[in-house]
Structures are given as structure tokens and as C-alpha cells.
Amino acid sequence: MKRFDTYWERFWAIAIDSSILTFILQFSKFITFPAFSLSSILLEIVISNIPYLYAVLMVGKYGQTIGKMIMKVKVVDNATEDSISYSQSFMREIVPMVLVTTSIILNFILFSDIDLENYKVSTLGYILIFFPSGMLAIWSILEIVTMLFDDKKRALHDKIAETVVIRTDIK
To answer: What value does the mean pLDDT of the chain take?
Structure first.
């Protein structure tokens, strides 16, 4: 079962990928549009989903992100341990993509046509603002919990996509 013990490798792979993406996404601050315009909302959705799109494309093509390559872990099909498809890779990232996009759209709807200096947010407004973020936090906790208690260390997104992460340095 050592082949499936990938918790720390996955943790450091995320840290490496996050560092790379943080550096790259720094350039997005030079792109500006008027606040609350359709262009600005679309740009925010695209930029906020770049980490997930990066993962979908890299894992769909290579089974690994750059961080996973460095840490010697790979995403494979759970049943066959063969390469995964782009659809499986997409299914691994669909929940956070939907939650992030929903959060951006709700904030746009709530704040696009108001005077921010004199506006008071209602209880429902706060719920709508923080619900997707709260769900993303709960999702992240569930990911860790499911991985810690699964025989193959499969996180929730692995179960949804029928994938498993294996160490490539152990056969």
C-alpha cells in the first residue's frame, strides 16, 4: 500500500503548483476593466479558474501537474491504473470550479448596481456572499478527511472521477 501513500507528496505538489501559478497570475493585475462590467466579471471568472484549468489540462495530458512531476506522483484510473481521460481530469476539478464561479457571479449580482458607501448588506446578502466560500471550505475539509480514511488514499474528487494518485517511484 506504500504506492498509494501520497498525502505529503500531494501537499508539496500543491505548494509547488501554487507557487508557479501565483507568479504567473501576478501579470493579470495589469489587465483592467471598469468595475462590475461584463468584461471585468468574465476576466475574474477566467483568472479565478486558471488553477483548475491548469490542473485539468496537465493531468488530462500527462497525469501530472508540474508539482506532481517533481514530487513523483501521478493520477491514474482507479480500476486499471492506466492514464486518465480529459473528462476524468475535468471531473476532479468540477466542484471547486462551480463554487468559485458561483461566488463571483453572486458578488456581481449583489454589488453591481449599488452605492457601496451607503449600502447595508442584509442577512440574506451575507448568506449569498459567503455560502459558496463556505461550501468551498467544507469541500476542502471533506477532501482531506476522505483521503485520510480511504485504503488507497483517494480524496473525494478522486472518487467522483474514478481516479487514484500513485507514487511513480514505487512499482
So the answer is: 89
Neighbour tally for 165: CB within 10 Å:
27
Output the CA torsion sign for 70, 90, 154, 148.
positive
Closest CA to 84 of 2, 8, 160, 4: 160
Backbone angles phi, psi at 12, to 5 degrees: -70, -30
Query: Interior CA angle at 29 toward 95 and 135, to 5°?
Result: 20
The three cell numbers locating residue 40: 471585468
Q: How far apart are CA 115 and CA 93, in angstroms?
A: 36
Q: Give Cβ neighbours of residue 137 (< 8 Å, ≥ 6 apart).
A: none
1: pLDDT strictly greater than 70 = no
Residue, of 1 and 154, whose pLDDT is higher: 154
CA-based nearest residue to 163, from 54, 11, 59:
59
How far, in Å, are 10, 20, 43, 108 from residue 46 at the CA level? 25, 17, 5, 14
∠ CA 79-61-165 to the nearest 5 degrees? 40
HEC per residue, 43-64: HHHHHHHHHHHHHHHHHHHHCC
Q: Taking the alpha carbons of 74, 76, 82, 84 in that order, is the dihedral positive or negative?
A: negative
Give the C-alpha separation, 60 to 74, whole Å: 11
